[in-house]
């Protein structure tokens, strides 16, 4: 599968939870298939997400197309506003 959403099931942050839920809702509303990758299963997965994103402090949610970094919540939100989600996800 191409699109990967790195998220976490273990967070005390309401903001992270709500951003993850919103990204999932928008992807589903646009019928975009994606794979969930839970960074809370191990530090290796979190480090992999940060390495691929090129940001040692990156927090979920983060989107990738295969191993190509697409962006974080703010970038995704801007793409939604501009009606450019497919381009943002490098699908078009």
Automatic annotation (TrEMBL):
InterPro entries: Glut_rich_SH3-bd, SH3BGR, Thioredoxin-like_sf. Keywords: Acetylation, Cell membrane, Cell projection, Cytoplasm, Glycoprotein, Membrane, Nucleus. GO terms for cellular component: cytosol; nucleus; ruffle membrane. It holds the Pfam family SH3BGR. Gene3D superfamilies: Glutaredoxin (3.40.30.10). It is found in: Cell projection, Ruffle membrane; Cytoplasm, Cytosol; Nucleus. Could act as a modulator of glutaredoxin biological activity. May play a role in cytoskeleton organization. PANTHER family: SH3 DOMAIN-BINDING GLUTAMIC ACID-RICH-LIKE PROTEIN, SH3 DOMAIN-BINDING GLUTAMIC ACID-RICH-LIKE PROTEIN 3. Belongs to the SH3BGR family. This is SH3 domain-binding glutamic acid-rich-like protein 3. It comes from Takifugu rubripes. The gene is sh3bgrl3.
